[in-house]
Design goal:
The chain has 756 residues and is α/β, with parallel strands linked by helices. It has four domains: 85 residues, Phosphorylase Kinase, domain 1, CATH 3.30.200.20; 242 residues, Aminoglycoside phosphotransferase (APH), C-terminal lobe (Aminoglycoside 3'-phosphotransferase, Chain: A, domain 2); 134 residues, no CATH class; 245 residues, Spore Coat Polysaccharide Biosynthesis Protein SpsA, Chain A, CATH 3.90.550. It contains 22 helices and 28 strands.
């Protein structure tokens, strides 16, 4: 311990003022949280194997350089027996999923999202992590081979199979094991095989982001093995449907790195599942039957059930092994527990007919006095029928009222009587039962169609109310989930009120900023008498094209910066309100460039806590702005980019995280990473459309009043997650020169035709 403290002081220059021993894992290493005199902490590790420690430190450094989510090793002792690594906290994915395990594998939506986030990172770790990796430094061997497989299979035979008392033919079983070993090793496997990828080996940082630990046993091998290890973990009790969802997520992410033959992938996955289950049962047998540890004995039935499911799906193509395993799962001590059937509602059917389809003889429709009045605000209520339906304060007669009383009521059971539909135990009860999910699925479809039509027509108010017996469980769950669904999908302002609980929340509308302050020098002589934003294309000013596009994506709150002919822009907006809330950021005193413009308008954008979209006024495109906003969720910034030819490119790594910029004509490179080799990274052109999170405003104080937003992004991309977004089939045109105006009209008409 004293040597570990000395290592800490040598590395940080600080004294250790506190030391907490942490619970050990399955190895002989000991972990400590070291508290420095400045309040910071690091994790200190003391191991007994120099080779194992060296392997972990080498892999951690390699993965850190590849920007993979692992705890960075910051110092290692000369003898290799001690090292310091970044402190990720105490919460593992295993801890976060406790509720689902305790409920017999019935996971809530938030827990499922954690699983999807974790397994989506695995291909990045396996494929990107293998690039440039010296597998000879892996411990105790560099690749999965037949000897390794046979060792684990015989471990199963001697430590589990024999302990059950089942009779088998030694030579026939050995022959089957050799076939399994040959087939496992024959699976294409140039990836980094984690080997022990499970929920206990995934830590969650303070923001809930997964980080991978305990990878020192990894080696070269097939990617399917880690999927089997993660999804067939016995204690997790993942349902077949959830496994299938997670497999699809994994495959979709794997396709970003390599070509995938999905049929072959699944065949090889079954083989790895078989191997992994036998391997796990061998470990459970040794730890349980021989070391008498109850924890492992309690895990055996779930592992046997996984094996039973695999055999039913034809997952063992070896006749004698299949015969032995079939007799094994039929032993009385492994009889499956009877399943409780889940009853599900049929839901409600809604019409998909479009009420606005008209016949030629009908003639044009008259304009409603409710059309085009402004941004839509959705109000969602939960209530008790005993106390009456919520009052409609909009004056338009209200909206939808849904009766949740047909669904299973948690309030009838003692554990839930003091809780609400916002509490995890109630959420788990409702989602486990399933009726509420079917009920909401139909409501989502109905609400989506209604919200879309109201946005198109410029209506300002829409109301949904969910009632149940007490306004406490089912109605609260339903109202909260619909409110979150509408806000996340459309970005509009949503008010949710749980009337009987006295709880109200406002989800603010998404916001955008339009850069309209430029001088437009390339559009002279037009811009000698008008601002670039009002230059007409296809009969409408560029600004109108931009605002219409923002409006179509659900954005109703817009900030426009003005400088050149600012009065003309303000007057045009006042005369053409377009059902939007518009604020002006006045740059009349000085043109501030893109970064300075955002900094100057920060006070108008800081409340857009989920990010705001930035759009150059002279860009026409078929960009899906809503998809870009959804992609940007949880990121510091997301930049729409394309593969168009230019001399200046943004540089991205394999995961599309921004790393730099280059001018291919001059060879100039800008990056916060020293000596960045631009040739090794993906090149894309910036499209002039991006999403920024206001959390980045904290760095604006380091910059002058006038600066480029791209230079800003480049300066912080090593500290904050800034990503590029590539839209399939993107069409984009920069209306920056006189000769492009005629082309722009044809471009706009073509995009409009395709959209229609």
């Amino acid at each position: 311990m004293e040597k570990l403290k000395i290592l800490y002081t040598e590395h940080t220059g600080l004294e250790v003022v506190g030391c907490d021993e942490l619970p050990g894992a399955g190895s002989n290493r000991k972990y400590y949280r070291l508290h420095g005199s400045d309040g910071s902490t690091l994790i200190g590790v003391v191991g007994t194997s120099q080779d194992e420690n060296n392997t972990f430190c080498y892999l951690a450094q390699h993965f850190t350089e590849r920007k993979l989510p692992v705890p960075a090793v910051v110092a290692q002792s000369i003898d290799g027996l001690r090292y310091l690594q970044v402190d990720l906290g105490d919460r593992s994915l295993f801890d976060a999923l406790k509720g689902g395990r305790d409920a017999g594998g019935r996971y809530t939506q938030s827990e499922k999202q954690l699983l999807h986030r974790t397994i989506s990172l695995l291909p990045r770790f396996q494929i990107k992590g293998a690039r440039g990796l010296n597998f000879k430094k892996c411990y105790p061997q560099e690749a999965l081979d037949e000897t390794n497989v046979l060792f684990d299979l015989n471990y199963f035979k001697y430590c589990f199979l024999k302990a059950t008392g089942i009779d088998f033919h030694e030579l026939k079983l050995e022959a089957a094991f050799r076939l399994v070993a040959q087939d496992i090793v024959a699976i294409p496997g140039e990836a980094f095989m984690y080997r022990d990828f499970q929920a206990r080996n995934v830590m969650l940082d303070k923001d809930g982001n997964p980080y991978f630990i305990d990878f020192q046993g990894g080696r070269r091998g097939p990617v399917q093995y880690d999927v089997a290890s993660f999804l067939w973990q016995a204690s997790a009790r993942y349902s077949k449907s959830l496994r299938e969802e997670l497999i699809k997520t994994y495959i979709n992410n794997l396709k970003q790195y390599i070509e995938v033959n999905e049929k072959q992938f699944r065949q090889n996955l079954k083989l790895c599942v078989l191997f992994r289950l036998l391997q796990v049962l061998g470990a459970y047998g040794f730890r349980g039957y021989f070391e008498r540890k109850n924890h492992f004995l309690e895990s055996i039935p779930a592992a046997i059930q996984n094996l039973r499911d695999l055999l039913q799906e034809g997952g063992c193509p070896y006749p004698y092994l299949r015969e032995v395993l079939t007799r094994l799962i039929e032993l009385p001590q492994f009889a499956p527990e009877p399943e409780k059937p889940l009853q599900r509602a049929d839901g409600y059917k809604i019409t998909e007919n479009n009420p606005y389809v008209s016949r030629p003889e009908d003639g044009p429709a008259t304009f409603s006095r409710y059309d085009g009045k402004g941004p839509l605000v959705v109000r969602v209520f939960s209530f008790s029928f005993k106390k009456g339906i919520p009052e409609d304060t909009s004056g338009n007669g209200g909206g939808y009222v849904f009766d949740c009383r047909s669904t299973h009521n948690p309030g009838r059971y003692e554990p839930y009587k003091q809780l609400t539909g916002l509490d995890e135990p109630v959420i788990r009860f409702l989602e486990d039962d399933g009726e509420i999910l079917t009920f909401l699925d139909s409501i989502y479809k109905l609400a989506d169609a209604h919200v879309q039509r109201y946005l198109q027509r410029g209506f300002t108010s829409l109301m949904f109310s969910f009632g149940c017996t007490g306004g406490q469980h089912r109605s609260v769950y339903s109202a909260q989930h619909l409110a979150e669904h509408i806000h996340y999908k459309y970005g509009i302002e949503v008010h949710v009120c749980h009337r009987e609980q006295g709880i109200s929340t406002i989800f603010p509308a998404f916001r955008a900023m339009v850069f309209a302050a430029g001088l437009g020098t390339r559009l002279k002589p037009l811009t000698d008498t008008m601002p670039k934003a009002l230059v007409p294309v296809a009969g409408k000013p560029l600004l109108e094209h931009t605002l219409e596009k923002l409006k179509d994506s659900g954005i109703r709150d817009v900030v426009i910066n003005v400088h050149h002919f600012a009065d003309m822009i303000e007057e045009w907006v006042n005369q053409h309100p377009m059902g939007m809330n518009v604020w002006f950021s006045d740059e009349r005193a000085a043109l501030l460039e893109t970064g300075g413009g955002i900094k100057h308008a920060a006070h108008l954008l800081k409340d857009a806590t989920e990010g705001f979209l930035i759009h150059n006024v002279d860009i026409l495109s078929n960009a899906d702005l809503r998809a870009l906003q959804l992609f940007a969720h949880g990121k510091a910034a997301a930049l729409l980019v394309s593969e168009r030819q230019t001399s200046r490119y943004l540089l991205f790594d394999d995961d599309m995280r921004l790393v730099g910029w280059t001018n291919i004509q001059t060879g100039e490179v800008k990056s916060p990473y020293p000596n960045l080799d631009a040739r090794k990274y993906r090149r894309f052109a910036f499209a002039g459309i991006h999403v920024m999170n206001p959390s980045l405003f904290a760095h604006f104080s380091e910059w002058p009043d006038k600066f480029s937003i791209i230079d800003f992004y480049l300066s912080i991309c090593n500290r904050h997650p800034i990503y590029g977004y590539v839209q399939s089939g993107l069409q984009l045109m920069d209306v920056g020169k006189m000769e492009t105006i005629a082309e722009a009209e044809a471009f706009y008409n073509n995009v409009k035709k395709e959209r229609e």
